[in-house]
Structure formats: C-alpha cells, structure tokens
Amino acid sequence: MKAASLGLVFFPAFDWAITPTHPEREERLLYTRDQIVEEGLLDLPAIREYRPQLAGLADIERVHIGVPNIESLITDAHLLSAGGAIAAAQAVMRREVTNAFALVRPPGHHAMRVVHGTRGFCTINIEAVMVEYLRRHYGVQRIAIVDTDVHHGDGTQDIFYHDPDTLFISFHQDGRTLYPGTGAMSELGSPGAFCSTVNIPLPPGTTDAGLHEVLDRLVLPMLEDFRPDMIINSAGQDNHYSDPLANMAVTAQGYARLAEKLKADIAVLEGGYSIEDALPYVNTGIILAMAGLDYSRVIEPDHARCPRQSAATTNYIAKLVAEWQDIWQGRDRLRREAVAKAGDWWQQRRNIYYDDSGIQERQTETVRLCPRCHGYQLIDTQAQGYPFGMKSAFAAIIPRNSCPACRAQARDAVHKARQEGRHDCCFIQDKQEDRLEQL
Q1: Most buried one in 131, 280, 366, 393, CB count within 10 A?
Q2: For residue 21, is pLDDT > 80?
Q3: What separation in angstroms does the CA of 126 have from each of 216, 233, 349, 386?
Q4: Mean pLDDT of the region 183-193
Q5: Does the annotation mark 415 as catalytic?
Q6: Contact predicate 93/135, CB 8 Å
Q7: Strands in 216-333 per DSSP E
Q8: 257-269 burial, b for 16+ CB within 10 Å, e for fewer?
C-alpha cells in the first residue's frame, strides 16, 4: 500500500478530567474532530487515521519513577494517551506515513522523571515515553524535541537534562510571567549535556512575526547543526491570541506555517485551551501543513482582533536571538568549560510544586560525570501533601551506555540507601537492561 503523507491518532479521553469544567477536558479534541470531519479531511488519500493502543507499564517505567509506584498514580487514559503517541511513531517507522500527529490527552510535558502526583495537568510525559520507545524498539538515538507550548516544558527538560543525544528546544512565554516559572536561558543542561537544552523565553504579546523570527533565525539553524535522526514537536497551541491561560498572539496561520517549516516527524498535542475559537482552526491548519496540503484559507472568524506585536517586543526578540546565536556558536567550548569546572560530580537542589495535587517536593539530584561514559544520576526526593503526609525515595538512573564502573557505583549507592532505611522506596532505573527495579 502506498504511504500516506500524514498519520492521525485521536484519543479524547472521555472518562478523564481533572474536574468537569476544567480547561483540560475532552471538548479540546471533540471540536477539532468535528471540524476535520466537516471539512472532509479524513477522506483525503494523503491522510490516514490510526487507533491508539494501550502503552504498557514497562513503557512508562522506562522513563518515570513513580512514588510509591506508577500504577497508583495513573489511569488507563494515561496509558492510552502514551499509546496513541507510540502508535503514531510506529506508523512513521514502518513508513506507512511520512509523518504523524497524535491528538491525544491527557497531556504530558510537565511530568518529570520522578512522579509523586499530577502537575500542570500532567502525570506521565507522553513525548518522553514515545522517545524512549523509539530508542528501545527502533534504535533511534539522536532526537530533537521542539516544544511549542506557551508554557515551558519543564518535565521534558528534566528527563533529558543530562542526555547529549537529545536536543530539547522550548520557546514559551517568559516564565517570569507564566506557569511553571522556569525556562530561563541559563537552564542549559548539566555539564555533560551542556547546550543540549535550549530555552527561548518570549515576552507576552509575541505574534506570528516574533515566533517565526525565532524559528527562522535560531531553531531551524540549530536543528540543521544538530542533525537529529528524528524531530518531535510537542505541539502546544496555547500561544493562540484567544487562549484564556496565556498572553501571546499567534494565529492558526502562524501555527500552520510553523508546522510546514519545522517538518517534524511526529507531533504530539500538548496544551491549548481556547476550545472553540482556536483549536479547530489551529489543528486543521497543522494537519493540512503536515500533509503537504494548502492551508491558506484556514483563518479564524475573529482574526481581526489578534493584537499586533509592539516595537519593544520585536526589539527584545531580536536581542534574544542574537544572544542565543552567540551561545550556540560557542557551545563546544562552553561544554568543555562546564565539565572542567564541575569535576567528577554535578548537583542541583530543587523545590517542585504539584499544583494539581497540592504536593511539595524537595529533590536533590547528583550526576556522576565520567570521562568514559554518560555516568549516572542519583535522586533523593521527599514529598509532602494530602492525603499521604510524607513520602520519600532514593533512585539511581543508569544510562544506556554506562560503563561497568559507573553501573556498579550506581547500584551500590541504592543498596546503601536501602540499608540505611531513611527512604520509603529505593529504585534502580537501568536503561541498558530496560528495567525499573524496586528494592
């Protein structure tokens, strides 16, 4: 059978919502579904629809460490959302389609490596689960993730912060003005993966012009330099001028042109909460662009109310782009300097708030910088919140190419923590053996 241009996967999660009136609810996808059916897009030979599948717990545990376990924190909707992204990836890897768009929920880009509950509407990281599935089952190694959600993809950043084979690029509304408050330019990755994290915090009021200035002068050249095997788009749509949770001014045309230029192999839906005024138009534009079809007539009825970009915002973005160009050109030197400065170990301490679950986490992450391999990471985490009170865990993450010495040291650290008895749970997440072990 001849390959179609675009594969589509829909999963609206009828039985999952934070509350019945929450912005993250099933209508986000139902209006889009109605729009593309009305336009006859599913009848086009360039577009093929796929059913979501159920991801396995092993797929989730390849990425996440749930405390006390991931099963107690998720529902079947989460497994189907992740499985929908996996189904999209499989269609691309089997060359049944050129690219794919997973329109699934619940979303995931705020879910970090360690999971105590739900934050930013996310419990598991859909794109990260899909990326690690691709690596395990298809041998794909060098991957770029471009997060176009208006909120910083702090969970995706956390998961890949130490991985030089993953280029994570997030352009988002400046964290000083919007949840989750992160995503500054100074967050560049740990020393061994320095400059593999690229945060581009944009000022409120950024329009199509500002977005494409960043895309054309910064993001696309970075992708060309990095030469990924695959490009993943975390396709958040809450930069739209009508979105109730943010302050940007991007249109459906702006999003469609972004999709056309980015040429992502797989796009996965993230945020976007203007359910009637934006999502049907934005998603239709993206679908047409990814399928190589004409999207020029996809225009919102109230398009005229989209504000114009101020001169101050234009100047700010130009300076931001120039500053990042300097950093990117010097990335190899900066990485060497960061490794030399850190020595054998790098550490960060963080307070992480789970806004949907009312949980406050304190976390210390320690990274072994090994000259022979990617080292390993140790995580000491303690969380407090209703109804469990306090819970704690200690975990080691052993990367795919960790040397024998690092593997042994990581395991020894967890066994020592278990013997000391200070933590409720102890874990070893072994990427090479593809196993999460709880001691």
Answers
A1: 131
A2: no
A3: 27, 12, 25, 26
A4: 97
A5: no
A6: no
A7: 230-235, 266-269
A8: bbbeebebbbbbb
